[in-house]
């Protein structure tokens, strides 16, 4: 099995090196990365990483957040130029792991377990979980993304926050791993794909998602994505609605209060754990402490 990973990068210098190193350790054979006009050193860091890891880098200067087009383009390049069998369609802040061993081991176990369909599955849906920081760790000079210990297990009641807006204390649904043979396109956000073969759930691979890190990172993310959405004429208001809302908050000077909602405070920590909204998960922190 040849397993590739595509990544779309824009100003992710605080996390992209760990992302590539981690997934190389998990069995990824090659990476294909599109840098979307990064200005924070991400592009230069990718060049450095390509000296140690098999990375193909594309440059996409247009700040239009056409993720579906660019990710599909990367997958088609892999199909035409490599021996890739499957591709994980990844984001810079997502870490894919299998409790059964390497990602290839997890993928094989899922494929072996799929029954009742005479066609080989071409799209596998893997569960994604948000990992949030807390007040203590985010204020430390030694803070890194893997110090986000709190995993969101289910959606928090919409009335918990006064404004009713709850983006990150939510069930995150799934992202897809796709078989190259028969792949037609990747959907926006990598949540689904058009494929000639069938689809199946992947219970052996999960995704740790780190959407909120430092406030500086959050502001950069909101500005980058919010302005790019404004530049895109293809999307309706329902696409990336939360980024639109955050960008409007930024423009009104209200973004810091929104950020603080997702930094788990001592006041709500025990309640949310007791209600099953949050759990403590040290898996990634332990991994990066040992490397």
How would you describe this structure to a colleague?
This protein is α/β, with parallel strands linked by helices. It has one domain (3-289): Alpha-Beta Complex (Spore Coat Polysaccharide Biosynthesis Protein SpsA, Chain A). The protein has 10 helices and 12 strands. The protein has helices at residues 16-25, 42-49, 67-81, 103-113, 135-138, 215-231, 241-252, 255-261, 266-274, 283-289, and strands at 3-9, 30-35, 55-59, 86-91, 94-98, 121-132, 150-152, 174-179, 183-186, 193-195, 198-209, 278-280. Strands 1, 2, 3, 4, 5, 6, 7, 8, 11 and 12 form a 10-stranded mixed beta sheet that branches. Strands 9-10 form a two-stranded antiparallel sheet. Helix 1 links the parallel strand 1 (3-9) and strand 2 (30-35). Helix 6 (215-231) crosses helix 7. The longest helix is centred in the last third of the chain and has 17 residues, at 215-231. The chain starts with a strand and ends with a helix. The mean pLDDT is 94.
Helices and strands in order:
Elements (H helix, E strand, L loop, with lengths): L2 E7 L6 H10 L4 E6 L6 H8 L5 E5 L7 H15 L4 E6 L2 E5 L4 H11 L7 E12 L2 H4 L11 E3 L21 E6 L3 E4 L6 E3 L2 E12 L5 H17 L9 H12 L2 H7 L4 H9 L3 E3 L2 H7 L2
Parallel strand pairs: 1-2, 1-4, 2-3, 6-11
Antiparallel strand pairs: 4-8, 5-11, 6-7, 6-8, 7-12, 9-10
Helix pairs in contact: 6-7
């Amino acid at each position: 099995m040849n397993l590739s990973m595509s990544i779309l990068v824009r100003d992710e210098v605080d996390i992209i090196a760990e992302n590539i190193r981690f997934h190389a350790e998990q069995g990824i054979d090659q990476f294909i990365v599109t840098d979307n006009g990064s200005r924070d050193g991400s592009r230069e860091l990718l060049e450095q990483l390509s000296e140690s890891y098999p990375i193909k880098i594309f440059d996409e200067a247009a700040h239009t957040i056409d993720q579906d087009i660019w990710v599909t383009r990367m997958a088609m390049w892999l199909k035409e130029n490599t021996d890739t069998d499957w591709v994980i369609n990844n984001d810079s802040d997502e870490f894919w792991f299998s409790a059964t061993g390497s990602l290839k081991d997890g993928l094989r176990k899922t494929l072996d377990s799929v029954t009742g369909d005479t066609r080989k599955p071409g799209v596998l849906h893997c569960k994604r979980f948000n990992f949030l920081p807390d007040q203590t760790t985010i204020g430390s000079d030694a803070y890194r993304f893997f110090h986000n210990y709190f995993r969101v297990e289910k959606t928090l009641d919409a009335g918990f926050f006064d404004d009713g807006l709850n983006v990150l204390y939510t069930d995150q649904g799934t992202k897809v791993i796709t078989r190259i043979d028969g792949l037609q396109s990747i959907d926006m956000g990598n949540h689904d794909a058009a494929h000639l073969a069938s689809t199946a759930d992947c219970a052996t691979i999960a995704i740790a998602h780190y959407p909120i890190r430092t406030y500086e990172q959050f502001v950069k993310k909101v500005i980058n994505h919010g302005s790019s959405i404004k530049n895109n004429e293809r999307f309706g208001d329902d696409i990336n609605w939360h980024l639109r809302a955050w960008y409007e908050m930024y423009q009104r000077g209200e973004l810091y209060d929104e950020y603080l909602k997702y930094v788990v405070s001592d006041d709500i920590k025990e309640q949310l754990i007791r209600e099953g909204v949050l759990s403590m998960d040290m898996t990634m922190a332990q991994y990066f402490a040992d490397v």
